[in-house]
Amino acid sequence: MAFEDLLEDPVIQKYLHELVGPKGMPVAAAPPDGEVTDEELAEELGLELNDVRRALFILYENDLAAYRRLRDEDSGWLTYLWTFEYEEIPEQLEEEMYRLLEGLEERREYERDNEFYLCEHCGIRFEFGEAMEFGFECPECGSQVEAMENTRLVTAMERRIDELRSELNVDAEA
């Protein structure tokens, strides 16, 4: 996928927005051709230098930007020249989807394997063992805890798991 096409994809825009936030989005959404300094980006985009640096560092941490350091012979100051490397975004999104799928599957099993009780007053949820330890009374307010049905939650997780598996072209668990 071409660099410009990547940036027009709403999924990739959302991914970048989640990474750098609203203040960093102008940096992520308008990568220059070739190398650029953080000061040049800040001036060109009309942003605070700290916001640009924060966005660049986040992009760097996520392997979406790289830098090269140059030392000024006279002053000894370091200059960082940044380049953007968005070619890996589709693979990173896919990895993120696999992590989400794995996390949802683990959480679904936890929800299936446990019995829960809820304090309606405080909104605190307890596993059966915890509820029993407290004599089926909320330790915060002393109210009676009631058995909690989590079928809708498990069903919603299963629906999302099926959607992710379909998007990733992964067969259902055996």
From TrEMBL:
It holds the Pfam family TFIIE_alpha. The keyword Transcription regulation applies. Gene3D superfamilies: RNA polymerase ii, chain L, Winged helix-like DNA-binding domain superfamily/Winged helix DNA-binding domain. Keywords: DNA-binding, Transcription, Transcription regulation. Residues 8-90 form the HTH TFE/IIEalpha-type domain. It comes from the Archaea. Belongs to the TFE family. Transcription factor that plays a role in the activation of archaeal genes transcribed by RNA polymerase. Facilitates transcription initiation by enhancing TATA-box recognition by TATA-box-binding protein (Tbp), and transcription factor B (Tfb) and RNA polymerase recruitment. Not absolutely required for transcription in vitro, but particularly important in cases where Tbp or Tfb function is not optimal. It dynamically alters the nucleic acid-binding properties of RNA polymerases by stabilizing the initiation complex and destabilizing elongation complexes. PANTHER family: GENERAL TRANSCRIPTION FACTOR IIE SUBUNIT 1, TRANSCRIPTION INITIATION FACTOR IIE, ALPHA SUBUNIT. Monomer. Interaction with RNA polymerase subunits RpoF and RpoE is necessary for Tfe stimulatory transcription activity. Able to interact with Tbp and RNA polymerase in the absence of DNA promoter. Interacts both with the preinitiation and elongation complexes. The winged helix domain is involved in binding to DNA in the preinitiation complex. This is Transcription factor E. It comes from Haloarcula onubensis. The gene is tfe.
